[in-house]
Amino acid sequence: MKYLKKINILLKKELKDSFLSPLIYILTGLFCLMIGWLFFNYLLQAKTLTTATMTQAVITPIFGNINFIFVFLCPLLTMRAFAEEKKQSTLDLLLRSELTEFQIIFAKFISNFVLVLFMISFTLIFPIILALSGYSDWGVVGSSYAGVLLSIMAYIAVGLFCSSLTDNQIVASLLTFCLLLGSMLMVISVNATDNYLLALLIQYLTVPFHYEGFVKGLVRSYSLVYFVSYLLFFFILTHKSLQSRKW
Asked: Which domain holds residue 175?
């Protein structure tokens, strides 16, 4: 309980700083504008399609776009996590406090995830509109939201690690974006090999491969294990990066 209480103190500070900054509102506005426009167009196209279901015409592409947009947004959300602390020389003070490195990482991770929830909450109007249109496959909608949130959690973990490597927010943002985009491009590289086992291994290591199952309404146990392992891997890397300041 004491462990969580310490995390909560830093979490409140992080959220206060984030919601007092205009950045989150600018990014949320841009996100709503883009995804709202796309949703409107998918609905219009769905009326003219006779072979595709509403899930295929609207749900799958809209959640695919949400996932892709956050490849660009997550680097902007996480770039200040540790880079700003380093630039202002407050990170060393934070590391000397009663908080452990993992408590600091968890607090910053949760604060960024809350920002993501705030942004995605505006998309909840989409299921309402679909319900009015007679849509009823809510299992796919629920699994799609779960897949998007798990993917974004993975993106945040990468962003925190990259932010811990530098005191420059722009560098942190670009590094995060390159790693996330590189992970997506790995899926394309599968087509360049005839080795089935190698192709399967490369696919398994990428976030999009596991995300696709959720959008199809398939919640696979190995995908859940993958996301948990992915988060732990980058948490440990971030922990090592923070610890290196003590060396």
From this structure: 2-246
